[in-house]
């Protein structure tokens, strides 16, 4: 019996580790573009999932941004059906007209399609093919934006999005390993031209910046960036938990029920205590790292759009606590104003 190729084994081991904790009865859905990463992920899932007693389905998203995209999606769907995936779905989305740049708009459309598909099929999880290289690129892009710890934490291995579990099994697998796995298995990946289009920031990081770093600092830089993201994510999770507790403690007025819990997913804008004000004395007693997270979370719960809420908004809110000299209201995105009245922060 021929030995299993190391690249195929690495992908399968990663998928098995991710799926071992899945307990819901619904299928796991692989998000597959037809590229090497997601194709290797799909092949590994087709092998591993049945051996864990799980059904495996596949969703491919047609963004409609390139000639022949519908044909490409159809090819992926036919391959998936041949591999006994069930369900198999082509999700066609409209990207143009969405807010933000083309990358952000496509990502938003894609994730919404994946969430909708997961709900239709009562999926236990959706598997995404991001690799260690993708994680390193994400960290570099976050550094370039001047992002805080949440940005530098990169992509989580597990995330809940609108009640749907997203899993990234390949964050410790190299991109080259997925290409090798495809070659060994006789799979022909699709090469997305956007991945080499210099008009996209991630493409420039992939083709220019990261190879330059590897050439200058050695091949370990990719793994080190990914490891840094993991460590920051662990620290950030602790600080976020402290902030959630502090936010409950700081609430005063309507909605300040101590039984109200924190928002489980930070992408959720509001919770039942969003109408409460915050006690300045409690906020002033917090460390700056925790207080900034409290104010950021509270602003989002008030309805400030996450994409528009920046560090300068949080800094202005913080000044109402730590540098109060009678200044006026702070204006947040979403036509929200916050003012200090005596010892309380509240809507302006």
Write a structural description.
The longest helix has 31 residues. Helices cover 49% and strands 13% of the residues. It is α/β, with parallel strands linked by helices and 348 residues long. It starts with 5 loop residues before the first helix and ends with a strand. The protein contains 12 helices and 11 strands. α1 packs across α2, α2 packs across α7 and α11 crosses α12. A hairpin with a 2-residue loop joins β10 and β11.
Can you give me a brief rundown of this structure?
This protein is an alpha/beta fold and 348 residues long.
- Major β-sheet annotation: 6 strands, mixed
Strand content: 5-15%
Strand order of the largest sheet: 3-2-1-4-6-5
**SSE order:** HEHEHEHEHHEEHHHEEHHHEEE
Care to count the β-strands? Answer: 11
How many angstroms separate the termini?
Answer: 73 Å
| Low-pLDDT residue spans | 257-273
User: What's the average pLDDT?
Assistant: 89
Architecture blueprint of SSEs:
Blueprint: H1 6-19, E1 28-31, H2 36-51, E2 56-62, H3 69-82, E3 88-92, H4 102-120, E4 125-127, H5 132-145, H6 149-152, E5 158-161, E6 164-167, H7 175-185, H8 201-217, H9 220-250, E7 251-252, E8 277-279, H10 280-284, H11 288-302, H12 311-322, E9 330-332, E10 336-341, E11 344-347
Parallel strand pairs: 1-2, 1-4, 2-3, 4-6
Antiparallel strand pairs: 5-6, 7-8, 8-11, 9-10, 10-11
């Amino acid at each position: 019996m021929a030995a299993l190729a190391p690249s195929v084994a690495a992908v399968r081991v990663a998928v098995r580790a991710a799926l071992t904790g899945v307990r819901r009865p619904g299928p796991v859905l692989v998000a597959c573009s037809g590229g090497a990463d997601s194709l290797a992920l799909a092949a590994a899932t087709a092998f591993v999932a049945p051996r864990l007693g799980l059904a495996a389905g596949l969703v491919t998203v047609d963004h409609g941004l390139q000639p022949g995209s519908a044909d490409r999606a159809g090819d992926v769907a036919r391959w998936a059906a041949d591999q006994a995936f069930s369900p198999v779905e082509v999700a066609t989305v409209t990207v143009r007209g969405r807010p933000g740049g083309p990358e952000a708009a496509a990502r938003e459309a894609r994730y919404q399609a994946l969430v909708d598909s997961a709900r239709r099929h009562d999926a236990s999880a959706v598997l995404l093919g991001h690799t260690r290289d993708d994680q390193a690129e994400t960290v570099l892009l976050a550094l370039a934006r001047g992002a805080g710890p949440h940005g530098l934490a990169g992509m989580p291995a597990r995330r809940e999005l609108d009640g749907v579990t997203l899993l990234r099994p390949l964050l410790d697998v190299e991109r080259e390993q997925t290409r090798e796995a495809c070659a060994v298995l006789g799979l022909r990946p699709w090469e997305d031209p956007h991945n080499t289009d210099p008009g996209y920031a991630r493409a420039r990081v992939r083709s220019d910046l990261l190879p330059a770093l590897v050439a200058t600092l050695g091949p370990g830089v990719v793994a080190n960036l990914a490891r840094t993201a993991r460590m920051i994510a662990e620290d950030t999770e602790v600080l976020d938990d402290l902030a959630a507790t502090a936010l409950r403690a700081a609430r005063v007025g309507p909605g300040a029920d101590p039984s109200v819990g924190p928002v489980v997913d930070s992408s959720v804008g509001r919770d039942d205590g969003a109408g409460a004000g915050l006690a300045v004395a409690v906020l002033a007693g917090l460390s700056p790292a925790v207080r900034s997270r409290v104010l950021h979370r509270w602003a989002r719960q008030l309805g400030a759009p996450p994409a528009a809420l920046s560090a300068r908004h949080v800094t202005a809110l913080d000044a109402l606590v730590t540098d109060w000299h009678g200044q006026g209201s702070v204006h947040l995105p979403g036509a929200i104003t916050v003012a200090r009245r005596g010892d309380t922060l509240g809507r302006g």
